[in-house]
């Protein structure tokens, strides 16, 4: 796992076509903007965990 620190308006690229940008950070909470191709599924962690429980 890679752990990065980013400030608002900074971003990381995943491959050549997925951009994850911090758009707001306050009180320990973040808002992220994710720009990815339409064929890439994006699922919130809690939804993914509930779906994949055994």
TrEMBL record:
Protein name: Translational regulator CsrA
Xref: Pfam families: CsrA (PF02599)
Subcellular localization: Cytoplasm
Entry similarity comment: Belongs to the CsrA/RsmA family.
Keywords: Bacterial flagellum biogenesis, Cytoplasm, Repressor, RNA-binding, Translation regulation
Source organism, top-level taxon: Bacteria
GO biological process: bacterial-type flagellum organization; mRNA catabolic process; negative regulation of translational initiation; regulation of bacterial-type flagellum assembly; regulation of carbohydrate metabolic process
GO CC list: cytosol
Top-level taxonomy: Bacteria, Bacillati, Bacillota, Clostridia, Eubacteriales
UniProt entry tagged with the keyword Transport: no
Major localisation: cytoplasm
Functional summary from the UniProt entry: A translational regulator that binds mRNA to regulate translation initiation and/or mRNA stability. Usually binds in the 5'-UTR at or near the Shine-Dalgarno sequence preventing ribosome-binding, thus repressing translation. Its main target seems to be the major flagellin gene, while its function is anatagonized by FliW.
Recorded name of the encoding gene: csrA
A molecular-function term among this protein's GO annotations: mRNA 5'-UTR binding
InterPro entries, per the entry: CsrA, CsrA_sf
Subunit structure: Homodimer; the beta-strands of each monomer intercalate to form a hydrophobic core, while the alpha-helices form wings that extend away from the core.
């Amino acid at each position: 796992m890679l752990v990065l620190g980013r400030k608002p308006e900074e971003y990381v690229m995943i491959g050549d076509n997925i951009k994850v940008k911090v758009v707001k950070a306050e009180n320990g909470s973040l808002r992220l903007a994710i720009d990815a191709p339409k064929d890439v599924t994006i699922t919130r962690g809690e939804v993914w965990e509930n779906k994949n429980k055994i």
